[in-house]
Amino acid sequence: MSVLVNKDSKVIVQGFTGSEGSFHAQQMIEYGTNVVGGVTPGKGGSTHLEKPVFNSVEEAVAATGANTSIIFVPPAFAADAIMEAADAGIKVIIAITEGIPVADMMKAKPYIKERGAVLIGPNCPGVITPGEAKVGIMPGFVFKQGRIGIVSKSGTLTYEAADQIAKAGLGVSTAIGIGGDPIIGTSTKEAVQLLMEDPETDAIVMIGEIGGNYEAEAAKWIRENGNKKPVVGFIAGQTAPPGRRMGHAGAIIGGADDTAAAKMRIMGENGIHVVESPAEIGAVMAKVLGVEA
Amino acid sequence: MNIHEYQAKELLKGYGVRIQEGIVADTPEAALEAAKKLNAETGTSWYVIKAQIHAGGRGKGKVKETDSNGVVLAKKLEDVPEKAKNILGGTLVTIQTGAEGKKVNKILVAEDVYYPGASEPKEYYLSILLDRAKGSNVIMASTEGGMDIEEVAEKHPEKIIKEWVDPKIGLQGFQARKVAFKLGLEGNAFKEMVKFITSLYNAYIGSDASQFEINPVLKTSDDKILAVDAKVNLDDNALYRHKDLADLRDLAEEDPLEVEAGKSGLNYVKLDGNVGCMVNGAGLAMATMDMIKLSGGEPANFLDVGGGANATTVEAGFRIILQDPNVKAILINVFGGIVRCDRIANGVVEAYKSIGNIPVPIIVRLQGTNAEEGARIIDESGLKVSSAITLKEAAEKVRAAIS
Asked: Which of A23, B307, B326, B386 is the most buried (most CB within 10 A)?
């Protein structure tokens, strides 16, 4: 079961023949993801990594029945690629690309919503359902199969959490990297909601960072929804100065409400097990679930 | 990316936004020439001299060396050079610069727009920014011009007018009218404000901005609406399609170490602490900073070396961190996923040897693919470097290194 991607996902890679696209497509195929082909405009009809290349997403969908797309297209063309995927009927669009102009995402987001597609990212590591499908750039071996869902704005911090979960004797149902940009397709709340409703997920790790109000919104929703599953939360950037962008385009403190301290307070007030140190994510999850770490 | 007031006003003017006219100068002589020219062009006989730095609060701020304010009024042409001299080359300290202040390299000589006339001049506030939660731009306006908007928002939230713009259709006429009416304007001033808001929004979209703050917007005594100040922030990700705007970047306004790091493709932010860090990934980098703090230290920097950490990037990172004299220890934290830990460890050893003697202890935490092999390479290198595998272990080693 799990959420967003699984062994039945038919995945196409947009930006398939580029260096990033090629490398990660190969890694995904080796992991066992059902990659059915790729799109590079102008290279349709050729074969790459033993998979067919198409000129458009529409052609790829018609020929392969693809329902999921992962995007490695350069930032200047990425919003266009996202909209193309939604227009062709792709239901799960995962955009890895970092550096897409905000104005482009502002148009792409409502466009894909109207077409009933879910967008994960951009500027994210992707989504993995261990043992079934990896549609992203994460190191697959770090994610052990299990029943903990992960929602995170950060890449390497997600790997860190997955590793700690494995060392605590637990595993991951699905890990969703939602991305670190100011405008992203799926909010923390929406991703948490998917995992709350997933019968194969028992508990959730929610990793956020400074900037925006997504974590606060998710925390309030979790409480309103009756704290149905335990959530362990961490916010990166407790030591970040206000007004400075910390790597991610969206990681910037704009006011009193989007600091790490404010978010952690709101999360705590809403029944989330907040960890202060990123080294404690796995241990606290084990403790919350009453298992020996 | 931030730009200066004089650059921001130039940008706005290009889109038909009325501005307080001014001419930029970098010497007292040039300031005098600017004032003369301004007098010929606008008829102004008073001159506002404004320090050009990337920080707010200039009017109340003080130049360390001369005690002049960052914005001063010269009521006579012959006063301009002296007043300009008191600001140019000085160090301006404002509430936003921190105690060290910022060096003033340029001033803007601007016309006086608060001249008396048929009605009282009045100040307003206008800004355009991204509402992240709604995924659209929002226009914020207030009758409390000249004040800090955060303060207005806190004390009088009812005095802040907000108008969200649908990204698919852009700003509509009725929206600009709504804002102008809510500001209590009428007659010609109302019409001027509608035009002002509309052109301002066009400028925002046209330049791929991420924030515009016009504070104050002035209604003059003859009912003109114009921008007296302009704070413009541009979306870094969109600069590739605005070559002319990208050229407005003023490197003198940025931390030299940050500029140097940028050239090596590293994302570095200088902080005030004593433990330097070098990490792959922005989220893990912030988390590492937090962990340093929890271990009893203070992070000296944010440094994201990106996905492909190797000997070259690690060496560049070392060189930048080591230029900060406050650094007492360095923590390298890399989660090797697709990049293998043994390769990163070799990169660290290579970089260390290439630099020679590094005077502070270094803790290298490598986790992920081949983590044990990575730790072995670090431990057997014979260098003043210690290894860690778990984050907890790294935290303890940081604590030991600085205590």
From this structure: B386
A8 CB burial (10 A radius; 0-12, 13-18, 19+) = exposed
Nearest to B208 among A103, A247, A250 (CB): A103
- Pairwise CA distance, residues B336 & B49, whole Å: 54
* Whole-complex ipTM: 0.91
- Residue B42 burial by Cβ neighbours in a 10 Å radius (0-12, 13-18, 19+): middle
Shared-domain flag, residues B240 and B293 = no
- CA A211 to chain B, closest CA, distance in angstroms equals 9
Cis-peptide, bond into residue A182, ω within 30° of zero: no
Q: Largest alpha-carbon pair distance within chain A? A: 56
Residue B249 has pLDDT above 80, yes or no: yes
d(CA B194, CA B125): 14
Count of helix runs (H) and strand runs (E) in chain A: 9, 14
Instruction: Find the residue in B nearest to A187 (Cα).
Output: B133
**Closest CA of chain A from B78, distance in Å:** 40
- Which residues in chain B have Cβ-Cβ distances shorter than 8 Å to A180? 282-283
Res. B114: pLDDT tops 90? yes
Residue B10 bears catalytic tag: no
Contact A240 B238 (CB under 8 A): no
**Which chain A residues are closer than 8 Å to B281 by Cβ?**
154-157, 247
Statement: residue A1 has pLDDT above 60: no
What is the model's pTM? Answer: 0.93
User: Is the pLDDT reported for residue B292 higher than 80?
Assistant: yes
**Residue-level pLDDT at B150:** 80
Alpha-carbon gap, residue A43 to A33, rounded angstroms: 23
| Residue A177, pLDDT above cutoff 80 | yes
Judge if B391 and B329 occupy the same domain: yes
The verdict on B170 and B280 lying in the same domain is no
Quickly count: other Cβ atoms within 10 Å of residue B289's Cβ.
31
| Full residue range of the structural domain in which residue B82 is found | 21-111
B195 plus B326 within the same structural domain: no
pLDDT > 90 in chain A, percent: 90
The closest of A160, A132, A127 to A146, measured between CA atoms, is: A132
The residue annotated as part of the active site, out of B111, B192, B213, B315, is B213
pLDDT average, residue stretch B86-90 = 98
* Pair (B289, B388) in one structural domain: yes
Closest CA to A239 of A271, A278, A274, A272: A278
Structure tokens at A226: 């009756």
Q: What angle do helix axes B173-182 and B187-206 make, rounded to 10 degrees?
A: 130
Q: Say if B2 falls within a structural domain.
A: no
Chain B: nearest CA to A198, how far in angstroms?
25
- Which chain B residues are within 8 Å of A153, Cβ to Cβ? 283
Active-site residue set of A? 248
First-to-last CA distance in chain A?
26
Reported confidence tier of residue A293, pLDDT bands at 50, 70, 90:
low
- Rounded mean pLDDT, B166-172: 96
User: How many structural domains are present in chain B?
Assistant: 3
DSSP secondary structure code for residue B60 in this structure: T
Q: CA–CA separation, A211 vs A17, rounded Å?
A: 35
pLDDT exceeds cutoff 80 at A28:
yes
What is the structure's pLDDT at B308? 67
Q: Which of A94-98, A241-245, B380-384 has the highest mean pLDDT?
A: A94-98
In chain A the domains, ranked by start, together with CATH numbers, are 11-120 (3.40.50.720), 138-289 (3.40.50.261)
Q: Which residue of B has its CA nearest to A23?
A: B338
Residues A199-223: pLDDT tens digits?
999 999 999 999 999 999 999 999 9
